[in-house]
Input
Amino acid sequence: MNVGIIGCGHIFSTYIKAQEYFNNINYVACSDIDMDLAFKTAEKNNLKPKTVDELLSDNNIDIILNITIPQAHYEVTKKILNSGKHVYCEKPMSVKYEQAKELLKIAKEKKLYLGNAPDTFLGGGGQLSRQIIDNGDLGKILTGNFIFAFPGVQDFHPNPESWFQEGGGPVIDMGPYFFTGLVNLLGPAKNIRSRGVKFFDKREYRTGQKKGQNFNVDIPTSYMFNLEFENGSIIQGFLSFDVQNHKRNHIELYGSLGSIVVPDPNMFGGPVTISKELGSEWVDLSVEEKPLGKTNIINDRGNTNEAPRQANYRGIGLSEMINSIENNTEHRCNGELALHVLDIIECAKISSETKSEVSLRSTCERPNSFKDQEIKKLLKN
Ligand SMILES: NC(=O)c1ccc[n+]([C@@H]2O[C@H](COP(=O)([O-])OP(=O)(O)OC[C@H]3O[C@@H](n4cnc5c(N)ncnc54)[C@H](O)[C@@H]3O)[C@@H](O)[C@H]2O)c1
Output
């Protein structure tokens, strides 16, 4: 199947690498609202440059990868579906729940596949954690907590404004990884209580041409919440752009027979760490031997929120969706899952504004676990 790409920005280079890892992704053309960028990107990556409309009317293209900005996902995905092509979109599905719901309806009516990132839960860390929880080794997961907290992108991004405006913020930016990871492990969520805080009205640009000047902060930059899942687990969360540094684990879950530290849901690797009864040692379980767990990136960017060595196999969700289209099966990074995750995100905001517990409007099936043998069939070599 041939894949066209819309959006030639920052994440493009990560996705283009996916055709080196997976045997069924064949990128043929790319497009961007900025056609100069599309031409340059096409030339560098041996693709055909096309306008969005040319891409959508090209009968040679079966699937479009939508890696535009979150605020454009709804409009671009809708156009793709209406052109009769399957779509795989970056997170979030849209910036509004009702819009995403409409996209899913269109996809179903047209019998097209709608896939959505994140696909990180398909990695070695996410799948080993899932296996341990499903085996019952830790008993029933009762409680837990998660955190993503750093000072904000203004330290290294020259244009950080959109992270601090409507449609941005820590919950919509990082929430998809945590909520998707938790739904993979625990099943769908039921309700949320949340508190969002904006500590400062302005922030300073720390890099680029505007360094030293200030920009406006329109939305809360720290959120604390607790989520009740349909299976009865209660999980506490903290997502923040107001923390200089911290030493907590990304996700810790506490079961009736033991505890688990789930690795970074923004990445694919491990280790997964478990401990049983009180006082017993913590055991690291490596995922380096798992097909989507092996370290493949050495990162020298020095961001304190990113591990210097990591496993990144973004694009497996697209590859798995292509395989599902070919075999007429349900894909794991599907629209129902992404819609439910967006529901959690939007309800976090509603709960904070109304100062009350909010019941989610949606539910979804827990995606099937992803066995090593299934993954190996999609890998090159
Ligand atoms: N940057 C990352 O590290 C990262 C990581 C994971 C996921 N993502 C997700 O990937 C997506 C893209 O992020 P990015 O960092 O590459 O953004 P970016 O701003 O660097 O690139 C987005 C590109 O989309 C183009 N675009 C915007 N609206 C368009 C439209 N209507 N039609 C055609 N092209 C349009 C822009 O011109 C730009 O080149 C986002 O959804 C983001 O959440 C980014």
